Amino acid sequence: MYRAEKVRGINKLWAIEGVNEQYDIEEEQISLLLDQNKPDEAFEYINVMLKKDEQNDINLKLLSVSYLTYISSDFFLTSKNYQGFIKSSGKAEKLIKQLKSLKIEEINEMLLNFEASLHQSKFKYKLSQEGKFAELLKDHLQLAISNYWRSLKCCTNFEEQYNIRNNLANCLISTGRFIEALSLLNHNINSNSNRFQSNASWGHAMEYLKEASLLPDVPSFYFEVSERYLNALKVAPSEHIMYQLKNDIERCKAKLKQFDLDLTKENLELNRTQEQKEFSEFSEFRKYVLKNELSLNEHALHCHCKNSEKDNLSIGLYGGSTHINNPEKLKKLERYLSRVKSEFSFARLLFYKFEQFDSGSLQFYHHDDVETTSAQVDDDLLGYDIEHLRTSYRILYGLLDKIASLILLHYNIPENGKSVYFEDVFHQFQAELSGIENIHFFALFSMSLDLSQSLDGVKVGSLGFYKKIRNKLEHGLLILNENETSLENGQINISEFKDFVIELMRLSKSAIFSSYYLIRTETIMIKE
Predict the structure, then answer these.
(1) Which of 224, 276, 318, 378 is deepest in the core (most CB within 10 A)?
(2) Which residue intervals of 367-438 are DSSP H helices?
(3) What's the pLDDT tens digit per position in 179-212?
(4) pTM for the whole structure
């Protein structure tokens, strides 16, 4: 996986009024030391700068944190200089606490990114020290994910959005949330193809997913992955990165050789042309589903050819397999999985119908079927199209709770009359679920933390408000309008709510894939 470039020079991000690039010389000196692979000297240079800081200069602190997080993660941690990592990350953490105490709104986004980077690095460090994955996920990696999500929401700089998405995607990959990571990387690739990180990270994410999930071996997979590596190679910024990418490409070449295929420009073009031809023959709805990455089809994760025409996600393998579950248990699992898949596809259809809603072309219902009373608030958006959107959200959130029950069924854990909810199932059944080591289990655990409003009284998830929305939809009065969002007053801007629905749909899709892969990898016996 490739990290995004280090945080930009601080005066290019934000500066106190009247400050004019006063630290250019310091930046150049630190960069020079790092270019010469002298992180210890760079660290000491920053320490000297801070000791001379008699004015409590915010810009100097921000500049220092920027480089300290970079040095600790990309130099000390990668070279296994753990003493240097502890010193530099500890210094950065202290500076972040000082800056947070100032409560300056303009630097909040930067501090979120700095904290996220530190937690991401601490996760890797403690994992290398044989820490327990589940605990480190909760204590560090999940906080990095939450901070990156929050930072992405408030960031307005195009280049920095790219960096945040790439770093967030790499965190998600570490938790096993490959499906969401691929969507973020695709967003970066489509919006800025002149940077190498997301193309390279996409290729690695697909290869990790294939290995971790027992995806079938097909030539198109290696053509697509190779193409991403080749695109990254074109814009690789250094010889070291070019060397890594060439190794990635050689690995794909070797795989294609097993199919008696060569990685040539002609074969890449043929693969792409065939995919585009078959995609053009799909219905408009299916094109919409694939373009927006909303299918339940694992071939569609890398290719939109005829093999992506249907939602056919399965716990078995295309090449044949043996399931170790007894027939009755397998029947129960399949029933849950089919129910979840059916509800997701219907929620997706409702969302599509909202987007394409044209009352005049419908023969069986019309907006005028329902009259509103004179007491109806003018800004409350009503009608069949709006109900499509609201119902889509309710279904998507509800199917996550079914996945929680599916997890318990898979591990033969009785619910014992308890109310089971996805966002706290791992906490509620902590004793029964402890000790499980499966990347897809960790992916589901991470998603539940994202949705949790609190864990032992500590706010964890960046998406905890999703349940508040669901509760107001189900049990209260939630008004969709074109005004500003105020959940406390039961109002959401229609455009924001639409974004919430599509984000929830992608999270639900990811949870469905992880559920299938969890069952597949723990209960499938591969035929030799």
Answers:
(1) 224
(2) 384-410, 425-428, 430-433
(3) 999 999 999 999 998 889 999 999 999 999 999 9
(4) 0.91
